[in-house]
Specification:
Elements (H helix, E strand, L loop, with lengths): L1 H11 L4 E7 L3 H7 L7 H14 L14 H22 L1 H8 L4 E7 L6 E3 L2
Parallel strand pairs: 1-2
Antiparallel strand pairs: 2-3
């Protein structure tokens, strides 16, 4: 459903960019870091697990959890980058538009403390 909305926005309505915006201190990411299982939330968090596993630092399992905000924020950033790549893989429409230079698909992080948005490479 979300990819369909993005495709319509870009191919149908003329949007020139799709921005995947993550944020610091993300509660969903914290839940994934702590392996929370709770009803419908479980399936959402399972999608973030790949980003938890892809975040290689810290190595110590004792500090790979939601109490380590540096870890949480690194997972959130990895999740944004993973989501950008997922869009390219799962949507031929958006990938083609990007390859043709008609749109940009970018990731960014919003710092909830400072209000600053940082675009990712």
């Amino acid at each position: 459903d979300i990819l369909g909305s993005l495709e319509f926005g870009c191919a149908g309505a003329g949007s020139k960019a799709s921005v995947v915006l993550g944020h610091t201190s993300c509660g969903a990411v914290k839940g994934a870091c702590d392996s929370v299982e709770l009803g419908n939330l479980t399936s959402l968090l399972s999608k973030i697990n790949a980003s938890v596993k892809a975040t290689d630092k810290p190595e110590d399992p004792a500090i790979r959890n939601s109490s380590n905000l540096d870890f949480v924020n690194s997972v959130a950033k990895n999740n944004v980058q993973h989501s950008v790549e997922d869009i390219r893989v799962k949507s031929n429409v958006l990938r083609r538009l990007e390859e043709e230079g008609k749109i940009s698909i970018v990731g960014a992080m919003y710092d909830v403390g400072s209000g600053k948005v940082t675009f990712l490479d």
